[in-house]
């Protein structure tokens, strides 16, 4: 097993059978989490992986807006009992991966009630066996709903930018995940890096802070795994404004190449059998 391919934390919820469930989350909004989730899904699908991207931000879902997609059946219909989970899956030939959009009207599910918990888990358990990878694009912050979504994942990828506010919120998220879910390793991706190597340096600085101030249940220091940097790139804004995947809009731009490298690392370290 590669050194970065680690077992699921003992404190998280039991991982559903089938796909490796990976949650993308962030301490604050505006760091590019949903954009990154969609493009990583596309990059992994190009490598032959069966990928489902689920919009787990029930209160402020925007994956459909970002990709200019519309589905007649959404997660809202599944939660209200009007459709089965498999009926809400949107197969997008252009993207190369499947999606499950949250839809409108999901604000009523923005609190983690027992009903929401049960429905969410039912959807994941029903769909995970059909895929190699199930990506959860969670909400931001540390609400109960976000933390529950993350708890369903065997691995967590935290997205941040070099901005001090983003790093502060990423650190707060890491502390909560360590305390509430017993996680001892998390993966970090730094978006909008100004220079090559900035993200790895940021990961190292955060690691030093964690080793000094954060203790896990086992007493071992929290391990941050640097998954890569995405450089600041004007092509990203162009793709967002056009509501297109960057990998389709400008596949040779620096940000797209960086996303492809991160997808390669995810495949090598996450999509491997767990011993």
TrEMBL record:
InterPro entries: MinD_FleN, P-loop_NTPase, ParA/MinD_ATPase, YlxH/NBP35. The keyword Nucleotide-binding applies. SUPFAM superfamilies: P-loop containing nucleoside triphosphate hydrolases. The keyword Nucleotide-binding applies. It comes from the Bacteria. Keywords: ATP-binding, Nucleotide-binding. PANTHER family: CELLULOSE BIOSYNTHESIS PROTEIN BCSQ-RELATED (PTHR43384:SF4), SEPTUM SITE-DETERMINING PROTEIN MIND HOMOLOG, CHLOROPLASTIC-RELATED (PTHR43384). This is MinD/ParA family protein. The lineage of its organism: Bacteria, Pseudomonadati, Pseudomonadota, Betaproteobacteria, Burkholderiales.
